[in-house]
Predict the structure.
Amino acid sequence: MKNVVIKELLTSAVELARTAGEYALAAQRGTLKIESKTNEFDLVTHIDKYNEDLIRDAIAKKYPSHIFLGEESGASKNVGEIKWIVDPIDGTLNYAHQLPIWCVSIGIEVAGVIECGVVFDPSRDECFTTIRGGGSFLNEKEIRVSLQNDPKRSMYVTGFPYNIAEDPHNDIDRFGRFLRKGLIVRRLGSAALDLAYVAAGRFDGFYEGGLSAWDTAAGALMVREAGGMTTHFNGTPYSVYEQSIIASNGLQHQMLSEIILD
Ligand code: IPD
Ligand code: CA
Ligand code: CA
């Protein structure tokens, strides 16, 4: 597909992410209707649903042949080459607790390859974009991963699944291995922002075990286009349709993989 078409799709995705993000930011200060999903820790607000409907309906209107995959409504029934992969609010728990650490994430896949994406953080007006072969950007300024190769001078980030209480061992053991080495690991609660921050060099690496396509569709490409690396825990090249991810500045990828797999 021609670059100009991908650029036009990215422009549309940015517009939608901004509209949804700004709407959600204004609504965050109001009364949120909160329900639980898979268990009592996994929440959804009426704004997650409103935003997903808004984005899905706008895509269906502008690009009727495109298909859609979103966290709240699942996959559309039509078949097609171009798929929009949407997390209407990534960091819902933060959002519901009035914390300013959440975003709207949209990735666009063409014939099985993620071609571009946006991660928009309305609380900071930070719009991260990426285009395959064209780099990654924060508010239109190119970003690169960090050049840090000393783990003692590094900062990593991770996340935990909502069902951690059902099988806590792997996640907690992995996290413990980092802590026992004295390494600094944050847990922000928004995987899409975690990835955007690796791309921007704010973090040197990110890992998490149980993610979905909508969490990473934009952010994983963003890391690679900023000069970093993404794999699964077992070292195979990253696909958004499998759950584990290690995303790093590249220099520390092997070291992070060893701690994760230890
Ligand atoms: C969650 C966040 C969190 C990660 C969870 C995700 P949600 O997404 O990205 O950082 O640890 O695994 O499910 O539910 O806020 O869209
Ligand atoms: Ca998410
Ligand atoms: Ca979400």
